[in-house]
Amino acid sequence: MKFGFNQWMTLRQALGFAALLVLLQVTCTMLFSGAHGLGEGYSKLLNWDSFHYEKISSQGYSFPANGQVSSDDIHAGKANVVFFPGYPLAGALIQRVSGLSTSISLLLVAHLCAWMAWSYLLLILSRTGMTRRGCLWAAAVIAVYPSSFFMVTAYTESLFLAGMLGLIFWSDRWMKSGSAVSWILALAHGWALSLTRIVGFAVDGYPVLCDFFRKRVRFASIALFLLSTATSVLFFVYCQHRFGDWAVYFKLEEIGWQNQPLYFAILNPMSYVPRFFFEPTVDSFSRSSVTFAAVLFLVWARSEWKVRKATGVLSETRLARGLVALAMFYIALTGKANSNMDSMLRYTLPVYVLLIMNFAELGWRPRANWKFALFLATCLGIQFWNMYRFTHGHWVA
After folding, report:
1. Three-state SS across the chain?
2. 27-37: per-residue pLDDT in tens?
3. With the CA atoms of 246, 249, 255 and 259 taken in that order, what torsion angle do they form, in degrees rounded to the nearest 10?
4. Which of 48, 154, 211, 306 is least surrounded by CB atoms within 10 angstroms?
5. pLDDT at 1
6. pLDDT at 220
7. pTM for this structure?
8. Using CA atoms in the order 41, 42, 48, 52, what is the torsion angle rounded to 10 degrees?
């Protein structure tokens, strides 16, 4: 059959395009490392938090016997119960099965999950009626986001995105067909989410939100939500059993990064002032992602209102995805507002992914004009700079 970009995307094509995207991300990141040889370049994909995950994966959690913890202890890895166990556990599993080193195993997990995330993204979009061209444009706009290269580093980005998009994909299939297998697969992705990051429970609520907007209540949706959060609960039970304090994760977050929740930070206008106006550091671009995300939320809300006014119809899945994105944004902003918006460029990546998916479903198509070219160039420029800094040992996002 003759290949055409305006045709529907099949499963095989989605998997193939996803593999190409991962290969492109890995290649670009390694090129910016300036390393000599593939082995050295590949090892540059580990840095900063990667070494904490590596230690947890190979040696388990560490915590001072006397219970006295300083910020230096956390950053040195002597008290590392500040990272959820999903990613280190996945790395340990791959290491035992393959016999490879822990660091390589962690990277294999990241790359496999990045492939899964891109595949789910393309499949979800194609099932909304989008052509291959539209799906690939949406994927390209996501790929240029300044922190998307973290999907192929030894970080949790790809595992979380794979879990998030997998839960949405299989939940949609279950809600449409009633298949028990789809429900179980959605639950498995929910477990991965909740075991990877604390904001996973916000995504776990996706099927309940869909039912809410459809004005119905189903026990199966509620059960899916509650059971999906079980792995987070088990982590806190483990902390209570092992360290005698179920809240040790939150306490270490506060000691290490001053992450005290500011619940009304989302209403503070100063949260949205672009940091590069008054903070002359490279990190100001990371903190300014809060402003960009807020603008995207406003544009999406306006677009939905215009569709509602014109057709009288709203998509329950788009609304559910939008609220999930808002919940993740709120949780991240609440926790990071007191620590100068540190790492927000990474935490807004899944938010950005869901909003771009909504824009694509609303019929958005990029126009080849100077505005779109400037957007792509700006995002790619910041991402390339972040790639360079990350692979050369500097803190990024």
Report:
1. CCCCCCCCCCHHHHHHHHHHHHHHHHHHHHHCCCCCCHHHHHHCCCCCHHHHHHHHHHHCCCCCCCCCCCHHHHHCCCCCCCCCCHHHHHHHHHHHHHCCCHHHHHHHHHHHHHHHHHHHHHHHHHCCCCCHHHHHHHHHHHHCCCCHHHHHCCCCHHHHHHHHHHHHHHHHHHHHHCCHHHHHHHHHHHHHHHHHCCCHHHHHCHHHHHHHHCCCCCHHHHHHHHHHCHHHHHHHHHHHHHHCCCCHHHHHHHHHHCCCCCCCHHHCHHHHCCHHHCCCCCCHHHHCHHHHHHHHHHHHHHHHHHHHHHHCCCCHHHHHHHHHHHHHHHHHHHHHHHHCCCCHHHHCHHHHHHHHHHHHHCCCCCCCCHHHHHHHHHHHHHHHHHHHHHHCCCCCC
2. 999 999 988 88
3. -120
4. 306
5. 33
6. 96
7. 0.94
8. -150
Look up residue 241 and give its amino acid: H
Give the per-residue pLDDT at 282: 63
Joined together, the tokens standing for residue 14 give: 């989605």
Place of tokens 């997998």: 166
Instruction: Please list, residue by residue across 106-137, b when 16 or more beta carbons sit within 10 angstroms of its beta carbon and e when fewer do.
Output: bbbbbbbbbbbbbbbbbbbbbebebbbebbbb
Both tokens of residue 360? Answer: 């694509």
Sequence-separated (6 or more) residues with CB below 8 Å from residue 145: 349, 352, 379, 383
CB 171 within 8 A of CB 193: no
Cα 22 to its chain centre, rounded Å, is 15
Say if CB 350 and CB 148 are below 8 A apart. no
What are the tokens at 74?
């956390």
pLDDT at res. 234: 96
pLDDT (0 to 100) of residue 372: 81
Which parts of the chain sit beneath pLDDT 50? 1-5
